[in-house]
Amino acid sequence: IDVTFVSAPASIQATTRTGAIAIRVPSTASYDVNAHTTIGHTSVNIPRDSSAPHSIFARTSVGSINIGPS
Q1: ∠ CA 14-18-50 to the nearest 5 degrees?
Q2: 10 Å Cβ neighbour count for 69?
Q3: Model confidence band, residue 64 (pLDDT cutoffs 50, 70, 90)
């Protein structure tokens, strides 16, 4: 899964059993991020706030998760 957004989405859900997830969003907004991988690494390089109106949910069993600025 590899997606890029030019405006801040209200909600993103990305799930896969095997494979990497790359999500790029504008860094002008804050996001409530819930990301987990069983085997791999998770990297989040965007503003985070658990009460933000924008949310990102990303899950993979095997693979990396990278969430960064667009």
Answers
A1: 35
A2: 12
A3: very high
Average pLDDT estimate for 24-51: 98
Q: Are 40 and 18 in contact (CB under 8 A)?
A: no
Distance (Å, whole) CA 11 – CA 63: 22
CA distances from 30 to 17, 61, 62, 68 (A): 27, 26, 27, 12
| DSSP E strands, the chain | 2-4, 11-18, 21-25, 31-39, 42-44, 54-62, 65-69
Q: Hey, what are 48's tokens?
A: 């985070």
43 neighbors 65 (Cβ within 8 angstroms): yes
User: Could you tell me the two tokens for 53?
Assistant: 């109106």
